[in-house]
Design a protein that fits this description.
507 residues, Rossmann fold, GMP Synthetase, Chain A, domain 3, 2 domains, eleven-stranded mixed beta sheet, four-stranded mixed beta sheet, 35% helix, globular, GH3_C, GH3_M, GH3, acid-amino acid ligase activity
Length: 507
């Protein structure tokens, strides 16, 4: 009998008894006031008159009127460069204990995003909220006694200006509470290995000693780890070594495009739970099995605003025009794409995280990530967001019964004509002409703007297929393997030329 598991499960279920009625707007209003109050005597708070904002009749509207939007480059140029040099009380009291290094999905240069002690606690609290939400998934008691494989970046953080630097997954793993350490795998020693391939090799070697009940990490790198464990231990599927694996907590990117190839590594179905942990904070998690949408964490150190996703408001570099309207959570509508803006206990203020979302349930504050502002493919008016591209790839998988583990594309000019040039990461051997025609037909039927573009300046689609490993090596050569590294879905022409040269040299 799973005695400890029943105790833990009982505590989780008991949490529902003491919960109160949910009011996202009230929680967000309280969060904003707390942020303003805490930072009103920082240089940023004084510059933008946080005291005056707090004393206004409508702090939300006054805040949005007084404080400008900022992307990473803008806030770093004006403020965070001083935080990064070790100066105190710039955008948040004192100085941060950590910096999250993030190159995101573009470029080789890492961003250095402040992670304060307040943010570490907020991430931990959001993780506890997610654990408490497991009561909705009807998991057996013995699940709560199994070990959890958290596959992130290395916890071997580097010191710089009296702060520690690393990816957010490594920072989070280095701050796990003591009571969780017996459940946490691969454990401190292996997690500190900086080299991704060596770390995964050690995981494969130790896999048979662990009783893993849950996995957590970005899908692309999780797949590679599972493949390595299966290969090293000469298995047919991962359940042969981890028979009690029941849950996978996905994050970083939409799980949909990886679903088919991921499931092929399993011996039986498992529960997939989506999360939204970014370098800027723990933003949302899936709280119900009836949907794959995620609940915004509205009471835990992050204040959200939402800008309607329109070409009129988006600059070519993905930043916003300053007069773009910003809505509070009480003003949003269903099925409308929004650019996500956040202010946080890490000293981010009206920060453009770069993601677009839509609300699927306003009362529950549930969202789906729909894409990236920089990956909105609008050349010649096609207006394709990442979620529409993901839908198209999943259609190909179903139509041709194949697995496509990664993809990227570019609106490329060829002999004065525009084509959408796709690269699909798959082991399947199929006619690229058939793939291109099916993609084209699907997108024309699914998107009226794309159909109009095809009748005008967009000549068509060209498809190339490469092994999935080429995508992984590209990520490794541009940044590093594992952790928060994600493949860019849409490239500009200059970046795409680099990609094609890389493919030629590595295929």
């Amino acid at each position: 009998m799973a005695i400890i598991g029943n105790i833990i499960k009982g505590i989780i279920y008991a949490s529902d008894i003491i919960s109160v009625e949910y009011n996202a707007a009230a929680e967000q209003r309280a969060v904003l006031k707390n942020l303003l109050r805490t930072a009103e005597h920082t240089k940023f708070g004084k510059h933008y008159s946080f005291t005056e904002i707090l004393n206004s009749n409508n702090p939300e509207k006054t805040f949005s009127a007084k404080v400008p939007f900022s992307d990473y480059n803008q806030i770093t140029s004006n403020w965070w460069q001083y935080v990064q040099k070790g100066e105190e009380n710039i955008t948040w009291p004192n100085s941060p204990d950590y910096f999250a290094l993030s190159s995101g999905t573009t470029g080789k240069t890492s961003k250095r995003i402040p992670v304060t002690d307040h943010m570490v606690k907020a991430i931990r609290n959001a993780g506890i909220q997610q654990v408490l939400a497991l009561k909705n998934f009807d998991l057996p008691a013995d699940f709560f006694e199994k070990e959890i494989m958290m596959l992130g970046s290395s916890t071997d953080l580097e010191e710089h200006n009296n702060a520690l630097e690393g990816e957010i997954s490594g920072i989070s793993a280095s701050n796990i509470p003591f009571w969780f350490q017996n459940y946490y795998k691969p454990g401190k020693e292996i997690a500190q290995i900086a080299d991704w391939d060596k770390r995964v090799q050690r995981i494969a070697e130790k896999a048979s000693e662990w009783d893993i009940g849950a996995l957590s990490g970005i899908p692309s790198w999780m797949e590679l780890m599972l493949q390595k464990v299966i290969e090293y231990n000469n298995l047919k599927n991962i359940h042969e070594v981890w028979p009690n694996l029941q849950v996978y907590t996905s994050g970083g990117v939409a799980f949909g495009p990886y679903k088919k190839s991921f499931n092929a590594l399993l011996g039986k179905p498992i529960t997939v739970i989506d999360t939204y942990l970014a370098s800027e904070g723990f933003i949302a998690f899936q709280q119900r099995p009836e949907t794959d949408a995620m609940k915004l964490v509205t009471d835990n150190g992050i204040y959200f605003e939402f800008v309607p996703f329109s070409p009129d408001y988006i600059k070519p570099d993905g930043s916003l025009v300053q007069n773009a309207p910003a809505l509070t959570i009480s003003e949003v509508e269903l099925n409308q794409d929004y650019v996500l803006i956040l202010s946080s206990v890490a000293g981010a203020w009206r920060y453009i995280i770069g993601d677009t979302i839509e609300f699927t349930d306003i009362e529950r504050a549930e969202i789906k990530i729909t894409g990236r502002t920089k990956f909105f493919l609008n050349t010649v008016g096609s207006q394709l967001s990442v979620n529409k591209l993901n839908d198209a790839v999943q259609h190909l998988e179903k139509h041709f019964d194949i697995e496509i583990q990664e993809y990227t594309l570019c609106a490329n000019r060829i002999n004065d004509d525009f084509y959408h040039c796709w690269y699909l990461g798959t082991n399947a051997k199929l006619s690229t002409t058939k793939l291109a025609n099916e993609l084209d037909d699907f997108l024309m039927n699914a998107n009226k703007n794309y159909k109009v573009a095809r009748s005008k300046a967009l000549e068509g689609i060209k498809v190339s297929t490469v092994l999935p490993s080429v995508f992984h090596e590209w990520s490794g050569s541009n940044k590093k393997k594992g952790g928060q590294v994600k493949m860019e879905r849409v490239m500009g022409q200059e970046r795409f030329k680099e990609w094609e040269d890389f493919v030629l040299a590595n295929s």
